[in-house]
Design goal:
Number of domains: 1
Largest sheet: none
Order of helices and strands: HHHHH
Radius of gyration: 17 Å
Helix content: over 70%
Structural class: mainly alpha
Shape: globular
Length: 129
């Protein structure tokens, strides 16, 4: 998959998560089998802000002209999604959440692998040696 297309998909996904976690955090907390107390609602909204930032970063960087800029951004997204996948798997496997916890684990792992295998939008420039 082309990196530009992947970043557009990532940005849209992150924006949807941001809006959902901001607007209806209690729904998502209950969906995963947890209690929607004030701390959980606050933390979901705090997480929403991070997804909002990731959405803007991915959307803005999807057509970055400097290969180093894109590569740096992709590395950050790989680390972010890789760590999120690990934490989500641990949460799902430990029983902290119900079976729906495997969805985010799969999503984060999928984005990690897709970002690792994405084809750059334009080939990196080569300088003669």
């Amino acid at each position: 998959m082309q990196l530009k297309t992947l970043l557009e998909i990532y940005a849209a996904t992150a924006a949807v998560i941001c809006l959902n976690f901001l607007a209806i955090p209690g729904f998502w907390i209950h969906l995963y089998g947890a209690q929607a107390d004030t701390q959980a609602v606050f933390l979901y909204r705090l997480i929403a802000t991070l997804f909002g930032g990731l959405a803007v970063m991915a959307w803005s960087g999807r057509a970055a002209e400097a290969p180093a800029t894109r590569e740096t951004m992709v590395r950050g997204l790989v680390v972010t999604n890789g760590l999120a996948a690990l934490v989500a798997v641990l949460g799902a496997a430990s029983g902290v959440y119900n079976q729906f916890a495997w969805g985010p684990a799969a999503m984060f792992a999928g984005f990690t692998l897709a970002l690792l295998g994405a084809t750059p939008t334009s080939p990196p420039s080569r300088t003669p040696s």
